[in-house]
Amino acid sequence: MNTLYVRYCTTAVLLSCLSLGAQAQTADPKFEAMLKEGFRAQGIAGLDRLEQDRIQALCSDPELRQTPAAQKVLIEEQSKAMAAIQPPADGKYLGSWKAGEAVAQSGRGATWSDTTKTPNGGGCYNCHQINKQEISYGNIGPSLTGYGKTRGTSDAILTYTWNRISNSKAYNACSNMPRMAHFNLLTEQQIKDVMALLLDPESPVNK
Amino acid sequence: MKIKYASFLLVSLLSLSTAPVFSQSTSDEIAKYREMIADGNPSELYEMAGEELWKKPAGPKQASLEKCDLGLGPGVVHGAAAQLPRYFKDTDRVQDLESRLMTCMQTLQGIAQQDVINGAFGKGIRKDIEAVVAYVVTHSKGMKIDVPATHPKEKEMVALGKKMFFFQGGPMDFSCASCHSAKDQRIRLQDLPDLTTQAGAALGWGAWPAYRVSSGEFWTMQRRLNDCFRQQRMPFPIYGSDVTVALSIFMANKGDGGIVQTPGLKR
Hints:
Chain A has helices at 14-18, 29-38, 54-59, 68-84, 97-105, 124-127, 147-151, 155-166, 188-199; one strand at residues 39-40. Chain A is mainly α. The longest helix of chain A is centred in the middle third of the chain and has 17 residues, at 68-84.
């Protein structure tokens, strides 16, 4: 799957983009040079991946991102991200939970050892407990066991869950979760299938 | 000869799964499994090969590596790995073990660094380096990580390494920090050391290079970093580049005072 990058500003021009004044992170030519000399393109992983968008640039600085000025920018970015999320074209939010489990299990895609023909996975079990039958799960994200059972399938929950998977940073700019739709990591169908895994009452997640 | 640990592990895990499995006991069982196989680390085979290569004349100059200065003087291997990465006057740069070995191979043996950089992990000249790495790190095992980073260039590289550590990029927005900046985190069942603390950094830095059971290969720190970047969906880090050395000295300095446990043994 080809990824789509929207570049706002690189770290080098962060100061002017943010207008944060004296406290702002200044351009770092030694760091930029080190980056430039330190990597090469390989397979589908090009050097453009080192160009940060505004969110990545800000979230990369643990001190700067806490400042009120940075927080203001991050909230702006959250709104932008939210506005750009596409709901499902046919209005149907739930696909097949069986297919969703396969998407959740697969961590493939987008590395230099994958190709554009590799069907991407969501890598969901890397960070989340989901179906409690699967004991090999990570804990970087919250447990999703019983997700639909506890929340139901109201429009609000369908929309929230869809948005979270599509672009988690719409809710939390420095969220650790990859932006599945924003970077075309998962297709619309795959997201519907993961939605079903989480929300279909028949899914093992909700039994 | 590859020993099939994978099926052994599967049997151990299956015997646990009669009731809902709590992840903590699964982690404990894996820790026990590691203890069991630690006695007889396949890294020792690499170490033996590495010692031979250290002493064997090679390259256009047909010289051995026995005059290689890893920071404690020409030929001194004992304790050398524990004080790397560090600044070297002759190259005027901060170097890790692998980039320093490349320097020695070039100056003593006449082997061009670019040929080594253009190689691939686990093959040819790079496989030789991996064996030499195993040899060198074995001779620091049990010592304290000694990377105070007092030289101005070392300080600078630590700062650059820290910046790289937090640098988010690529289509999954991953930085090293995405996985390695909180305690008690794991991906699937793989524990992730918190590299922002002394204890976590000592664990991370101090346990690689290691024999990796799942791939049946000895992985140096350069290889470990390379595969991290691959999983982060980043482009390919150049072997021995300043990016890799900066990250290495950032970790080593953070873990300063911890115990060198290399060569390690990993899943």
